[in-house]
Amino acid sequence: MTSAPTTEPGLTTSPPQTPGEAPGRVAPRPRRVVPLWGWLVAVVVIWWVASRIGDGRAVLYLPGQETTDFQDRFTDLKADLIAGRDTNVLMQVVGAVSDAFNGVVEQLQGLVSTPDLPRPVPQIGWLGVLGIAGWVSLAIAGWRHALGTMASLAAVGLLGYWVDGMDTLIITFFSVAVSLALGLPLAVWMGTSRRVNAVVTPVLDVLQTFPAFVYLAPMALFFSLGPAIAVAVTVLYALPPVVRISAHALRSVSETTIEATTSLGQTGWQRLIKVQLPMARPSIIVGVNQTMMAALSISVIAGFVNGPGLGKPVLRALTAGSNQVGVAFIAGASIVFIAIMLDRVTTAASERSELVARGGGGNRRTHRIVLAVAGAAALVSVYVSRTYFSFAEFPDTEVGPKVAEAVQSATDWTTSHFSGLTTGVQETVTTVFINPLQDLVAGSPWFVTGLALIVLSQLLAGWRGALSSLACLTGIYVTDLWYDAMVTLTSVLVATLFVMVVAVVLGVWMARRRLVDRLLRPLLDAAQVMPSFVYLIPVLALFGPGRFTAIVAAFIYAVPVATKLVADGVRQVSETTVEAATAAGSTPWQLITKVQLPMARGNLVLAANQGLLFVLAMVVIGGLVGGGALGYDSVLGFSRGEFFGKGVSAGIAIVLLGIMVDRVARGAAERDRSAPGLLARLRTRTPAHHLS
Amino acid sequence: MSESSPALQVDGLWKIFGQRADKVIGTPDALLSRADLKAKNGCVTAVKDVSFDVAPGEVFVVMGLSGSGKSTLVRCLTRLIEPTAGQITIDGEDVTKASESQLRELRRHKVSMVFQHFGLLPHRQVIDNVAYGLEVRGVKKAQRRQQAGDLVDLVGLTGYDESYPDQLSGGMQQRVGLARALANDPAILLFDEPFSALDPLIRRDMQNEVVRLQAELKKTMVFVTHDLQEALKLGDRILIMRDGEIVQIGRPAEVVARPVDDYVRDFVSDVPRSHVLTLEYVMRAPTPEDSREGPVMSMDTIVRQAAQAALASAHPVQVVSDGKLVGIVDDDAILRVVVAEESVPTAPTKQAV
């Protein structure tokens, strides 16, 4: 219609040396005298000079054991809230919710995990749980997954974490149930009302920017430690995916189908029930899957706030140091078994339900008979588990300790034989990348760094980016944790840099070689399913506690999502364009650098955005293993009452950092017209293969 | 023929997209061209003061290029798109004033629509797709399935009742769409470019299907298309639209023979005239000298069909209307239409059947 000449990325049809003379161009854009990268370099050079002049002054360093007035205010607030527990209405509501959550969790624990007094064992023993879990998997996902489920649970038991595993599942399932009860109606509302959608979407945007970790502190203001806060935090974190994905699915039901069915005189209710919900169902189930994986991930992290489950043993082992790596490993392995089990079963269930809805899925009568027989077997297993003690309490085996021991000795062997290599890598990266950058970012006077960051934001993301950076940096300044925040930012930037290098190399390779894609993609998918926590364990084993470990763990955590985005971006480059470039005699290198990467630029920016957020989430958790800075401040806040305020302040600073990097990356993406709609898609955090 | 009241009457219909669109009607702004109005206040006029009647049992084709507003027009008829101004009367009822529930009743019983991209429900079998209209108006399952089954047979999909839309070809899916529209037994059928997503051969099959169903069921049809051949083949009358406005309304032969402006002339320039023109448009006034021994034909005989008999006879054709001689067609006139049209001048008599 009215298309003004725009600068298009990638191949242009006119020869590049005569952009102004091409016919039809109304007003050729004046060439920038200094290219963007020139400005960026100039800013960094000036920044560096200023930091030399500053020489370590005005960096706003606050020693680990000190707090400020601003931070103490939160500590006092918590004390006041606790003191006013019986009079404050808000606290009474929270108390009621808390009691309800605790009650339900206790009931469920009595059912499957802890002794339900006066019984010395839970109502249903391990055999019964295996039977029921197997039957449910059989019903929704098929017999292969039923076997997989039972094997996973048995493995958790063999490793010695049956009770903790059950607790993790209880918190996960209960939180998912609450999330769905709240989230699905909200999604329907958003899916049918444009206005509600417009209001709720930005809130979800911000919620999804937060690292899981930061939900803990504000919640700890209101809830006392224990199951209730674990559930509350998990619900808060797990709610956005299902809401977003379901609302999006409801909104994107084919316009023609809605119109066609409306033309037959359906009511609004009939449209929702008979058309929109059934057509959105596969995506909604994907949303449930995402919510479940998010819930599992944070229910583990909720070990920090004394939430029941596998988080606690991992946490204990991690904080105990390198001689407990074996124990951390088997606890982490239990989490991995559960994660894979939940992901496989829900994914298979979604595929299967789609198959059945379209008339496939085999003979229904046979299926029913199989289910009835298996159901009887499950009931027998429940009965047996209630009758015989050895089928009620998972027998102690030597498997767990033996595996732990083997892993421990393997780790010790590795660290002693390869310490030269690992230390070498660590020292190289630290001296070449981390230290100089930290000197620049955290070691400059605060106003120099602040100004430099705002100018960089402007260059990358325009005035809106600069404005949001200004607001976020002001907030960080107010929390009195400027220095720690800048150290954390350094770690984030270094890790993201490595993430992007690896993601681009792997992503391009995957996009160009089908075989590589086939081999790597399942690995990346599986890696994305893992709760962030378990990534710390192997890295800790190799590199020992410290800042570097946090950075490596963050790198490993963020690589899969970024790689997939790059690969998808490169593959989306139109076949015709690639063919045309090949026909013009491009070498593979020219094809990659001049056609495929520039045209995938939108996805590259998004990969950087996601990389940044994933890295930040993990760097913060790394505070646990000596990552220092904001992560350490947060951990300190949970573990020591008098530092509660500092912990909350660290949480605020983390959120502000997250918003800052997200806004800058998003601003950069929005400026890039080659990525329309990608951002919205990405916000749902849906793995691309579910969407295609 | 007795003059019955029209099945569908459209009077002064406007659709303007954009904020405060209703404020534009009745002001001089409304008369601005599309581009000017858009530049002025961001509104886009899709349908501009359109009026027409459709007689019961008539096939009324709305034709125009993409963006001419024809799809918007047909959606306004049952208010799938809310018209900005104007009146639509169906069966004596003013659709624009109907309440939500009256509108639903109208859609459930009187008017059905067939869509370009089918709009089938992928999670339902063919039979349940066809039965959807019956389902939403509360027909019991056994009964609606039986009715839907009959329609599946009627559109030639016997045996595919339990298939899912994914398993069918495009042409078959559109047959499902057609059956679904027929299931409500509506008096009026609306078609929005129903066959433009189909292969040419399938498209011809489907057009023949519509001709067959029309002969069998005698529905009133409003048929939107951008394909002139399709319009000429199916239409009793054709409305040509451009930029939301009516350019010309007329019978196929009239549009081809007497285009009102260059736009329409350009449109119809490739049409094989002999297939469309009737004798009415090639005859000359009779003179007393004319022979009265040639074949006698009615005014709406298509030239191609008249050609063989006309050329075989040594005398010119006499064209009659209501028993009176109204014109004479010479061999010359026939040949001008038939031969001048053909790019390869072969013997036209052998082609004509």
UniProtKB/TrEMBL annotation, chain A:
**PROSITE patterns attached here?**
ABC_TM1
Q: Which residues cross the membrane?
A: 33-50, 146-163, 169-189, 220-239, 284-305, 325-345, 366-384, 440-459, 489-511, 611-631, 643-661
- Give the source's domain of life in one word: Bacteria
Q: Which GO terms describe its molecular function?
A: amine transmembrane transporter activity; carnitine transmembrane transporter activity
- Its principal location? membrane
Gene3D superfamilies named among the record's database cross-references: MetI-like
Q: What is the lineage of its organism?
A: Bacteria, Bacillati, Actinomycetota, Actinomycetes, Propionibacteriales
- Cross-referenced InterPro entries, in alphabetical order? MetI-like (IPR000515), MetI-like_sf (IPR035906)
- Has UniProt tagged this entry with the keyword Membrane? yes
Subcellular location(s) of the protein? Cell membrane; Membrane
Q: Does the keyword Transcription apply?
A: no
Q: Which UniProt keywords apply?
A: Cell membrane, Membrane, Transmembrane, Transmembrane helix, Transport
Which family does this protein fall into? Belongs to the binding-protein-dependent transport system permease family.
GO biological process terms, alphabetically, are:
choline transport; glycine betaine transport
Q: Which topology term describes how it sits in the membrane?
A: Multi-pass membrane protein
Q: What is the name of the protein in this document?
A: Glycine betaine/proline transport system permease protein
Feature: compositional bias, Polar residues: 1-15
A cellular-component GO term for this protein: ATP-binding cassette (ABC) transporter complex
Q: What sequence ranges are listed for the domain ABC transmembrane type-1?
A: 165-346, 485-665
Q: Where are the residues of the annotated region Disordered?
A: 1-27
- What PANTHER family does the record tag this protein with? GLYCINE BETAINE/PROLINE BETAINE TRANSPORT SYSTEM PERMEASE PROTEIN PROW, GLYCINE BETAINE_PROLINE BETAINE TRANSPORT SYSTEM PERMEASE PROTEIN PROW
From TrEMBL, chain B:
Record carries keyword Nucleotide-binding: yes
| Gene3D superfamilies for this protein | P-loop containing nucleotide triphosphate hydrolases
This protein's UniProt keywords? ATP-binding, CBS domain, Nucleotide-binding, Transport
Keyword Transport belongs to the record: yes
Q: What domain of life does the UniProt record list for this protein's source?
A: Bacteria
Q: Which CDD domains match?
A: ABC_Pro_Gly_Betaine
Name the UniProt record assigns to this protein: Glycine betaine/proline transport system ATP-binding protein
Q: What is the lineage of its organism?
A: Bacteria, Bacillati, Actinomycetota, Actinomycetes, Propionibacteriales
